[in-house]
Amino acid sequence: MPTMNWIVMRLTWNGCGEISKRAVNVLIESLTTNQTPGIHRRTIEILKQSLLEEQLSDVITRLKAYSLAPETGGFSSQELELYKLLWHCSEPVSYGNFVAAWHSKFPS
Length: 108
Prior knowledge:
By secondary structure, this protein is mainly α. It contains six helices and no strands. α2 runs antiparallel to α3, α3 (37-50) runs parallel beside α5 (77-90) and α4 (56-63) crosses α6 (95-103). The longest helix is centred in the middle third of the chain and has 14 residues, at 37-50. The N and C termini lie far apart (30 Å). 15% of the residues are buried. The model has no long low-confidence stretch (mean pLDDT 79).
């Protein structure tokens, strides 16, 4: 069975040392699956380290679709990690671009 690092390397790098849009989509989608906490945390670390500035708005748009305010009254550890990733992506983005990303719909 391939390791997480092997999967990431095969999906992410487009030959120019940049993470591809397809890889970002796959990694974010994988965050919604039932992963072990370690793999979930590693996926978020890879995204934080690899995202390009021009990809941040798309990631914000994608992340808002996931429940970041659970009705249970608190965050699970995985939801908290998603929130931290959203925060990480939001910091370098201007307020106007953040609002636009937050209110836009991600194409299916």
